[in-house]
Design goal:
- The chain has 2 domains: 3-46, no CATH class; 63-154, RNA polymerase II/Efflux pump adaptor protein, barrel-sandwich hybrid domain (OB fold (Dihydrolipoamide Acetyltransferase, E2P)), CATH 2.40.50.100.
- Helices cover 17% and strands 37% of the residues.
- The chain has helices at 3-14, 61-74, and strands at residues 20-25, 28-34, 41-46, 77-81, 86-89, 105-106, 111-117, 120-125, 130-135, 142-143, 148-154.
- The strands form 3 sheets. The chain has a 4-stranded antiparallel beta sheet, covered by helices on one side. A 4-stranded antiparallel beta sheet has the order 8-7-5-10, with no helix packed on it. It has a 3-stranded antiparallel beta sheet with strand order 1-2-3, covered by helices on one side.
- The longest helix is centred in the middle third of the chain and has 14 residues, at 61-74.
Length: 156
């Protein structure tokens, strides 16, 4: 395993909540463990007698999201993203039915969810006619601007 691969893995771990990570390939074994007091990953590398091709680095969360977005485009699926930072709610109140479920047929302008920001409830409306194929956020979860919320299969 080359040092650039180790550095890439180390950088990835610093950006996540992962405490311990271990990868083993034909060319060696890499174990990173975040220190309790310092909060820093400490690399431990054991090289084998014969080094072969390096193992591929694990994919970051951003790379995975980009791949999902590309796959969605190919399947005629549109992604509805959060228009603001706030808290995602599936319904108008805890007792009310969710605005949409997986499999719900939606029309342009229909409310999909609510994002609460600074005590204001903001409705997120669908821009497409189609069907909800995936809900990507849990009720009550904080969301960031531009974070994917729904996959909508667009009607042709």
């Amino acid at each position: 395993m080359e040092i650039k691969d180790i550095k890439a893995i180390y950088k990835f771990l610093r950006e996540t909540d992962i405490v311990e990570f271990e990868i083993e390939g034909a060319d060696g074994k890499l174990r990173l463990k975040r220190g309790v007091a310092a909060g820093v990953a400490q690399p431990v590398f054991q090289a084998p007698a014969a080094a072969l091709a390096p193992a591929p680095a694990p994919k970051s969360a951003n790379e995975i999201k980009k791949e999902e977005a590309e796959r969605a485009k190919a399947e005629n699926i549109k992604i509805v993203t959060s228009p603001m930072v706030g808290t995602y709610y599936r319904s108008a109140s805890p007792e009310a039915q969710p605005f949409v479920e997986i499999g719900s047929v939606v029309k342009s302008g229909q409310t999909l969810c609510i994002i609460e920001a600074m005590k204001l409830m903001n409705e997120v409306e669908c821009e497409y006619n189609g069907k909800v194929v995936q809900i990507l956020v849990d009720n009550g979860q904080p969301v960031e601007y531009g974070e994917p919320l729904f996959h909508i299969e667009v009607s042709r």
